[in-house]
Amino acid sequence: MSGASVLYDVPGPKARARNRVYSVIGALAVAGLLTFAVLRLNAKGQLDPEVWRIFNYAGVRTGIRDGVLTTLEVFAVAAVLSLLLGVLLAVARLSDHKPVRWLATGFVELFRAVPLLITIYALWVILLTNREALGLTGSQPQFWALVAGLTVYNGSVQAEVLRSGINAVPKGQREAAYALGMSKTQVMTTVLIPQAVRAMLPTIISQLVVTLKDTSLGYIITFEELLYTARLMSTNIIVNGNDTYIPVIIVIGSIYVAMCLALSALAHWIERRGRRARTGITVAAAAEPVAAADAAETAGPAPEAPADTKD
């Protein structure tokens, strides 16, 4: 059967009917749970118009705007540093020198194993204790602790991604580059890393989305990013004797989803442009019939083939 799946047998008429019944029952169950949740929220006053009008206040909008900008600032710095660290660690893990390779392997395995929250908190304590010696003021200890934690963790993950991409490049290309007289640095920078980045771009972007979401861990060290701002608003703003946790969670969650979707869309755009750059071939235009005829006339008549002779 041409339409058969290699993973499972094609369901028959009874199985298809049973699957439809299960799908309808599952959809009704989900709809029932959503209806129950909406009714409970309405009974608690979380859906009253007064609760949602808090987002019309200038102070609330300013707080959300500042939280978004701070989150994007941390993400931008951590993303760039984690990519640079990932490249260095990937190259170090492929080094011919055993001490360099062992040191990079230990660094990667350590920070991949330690929970990111513990890393951020430990760095915050270290920076907070030595803030005067490091010249840090204001919220800088929280900022750099969050950035450093995100960098070492995501850099370790990106290093493994890039190392896998480099190892996936056919060995013949590496051998051909060495045969042309290229040094190891030239082979790595001009042959291996560009192909590894192109091949692993979806995974790299996925890890950057994780980096963006992990910026929310800054609220643990009282860094005023988006989640910490949302926590302050939901705690301090009371409407009709009720807290505003649900509206704030819905709005802030929607902002996080929008930022992640925007980053994913950017990744797809970059991937499409890269695919077009690899496959775009300019085809030479064919000669015009008139120009071809003129060229034939200029060249003169074609020489006749010699006649066959018999001895």
Structure description:
The chain has 311 residues and is mainly α. 74% of the residues lie in helices and 1% in strands. The protein has 13 helices and 2 strands; from the N terminus they run H-H-H-H-H-H-H-H-H-H-H-E-E-H-H. The chain has a two-stranded antiparallel ribbon with strand order 1-2. Helix 7 runs antiparallel to helix 10. The radius of gyration is 31 Å and the shape is flat.
Total helical segments: 13
Radius of gyration: 31 Å
* C-alpha termini separation: 67 Å
Overall form: flat
Number of strands: 2
Integer average pLDDT:
82
Beta content: under 5%
Low-confidence stretches: 279-293, 307-311
Strand arrangement within the widest β-sheet reads 1-2
Helical amount = over 70%
- The biggest beta sheet, please? 2 strands, antiparallel
User: H/E element string?
Assistant: HHHHHHHHHHHEEHH
Structural class: mainly alpha
Descriptive keywords:
1% strand; 311 residues; two-stranded antiparallel sheet; 13 helices
Short description:
With 311 residues, the chain is mainly α. 74% of the residues lie in helices and 1% in strands.
Question: What does the secondary structure layout of this molecule look like, with pairings?
Answer:
Elements lengths: L12 H31 L5 H4 L5 H36 L4 H16 L2 H14 L1 H4 L5 H29 L2 H9 L4 H16 L1 H14 L11 H11 L1 E2 L2 E2 L1 H35 L9 H11 L12
Antiparallel strand pairs: 1-2
Helix pairs in contact: 3-4, 3-7, 3-11, 4-7, 5-7, 7-9, 7-10, 8-9, 10-12, 11-12
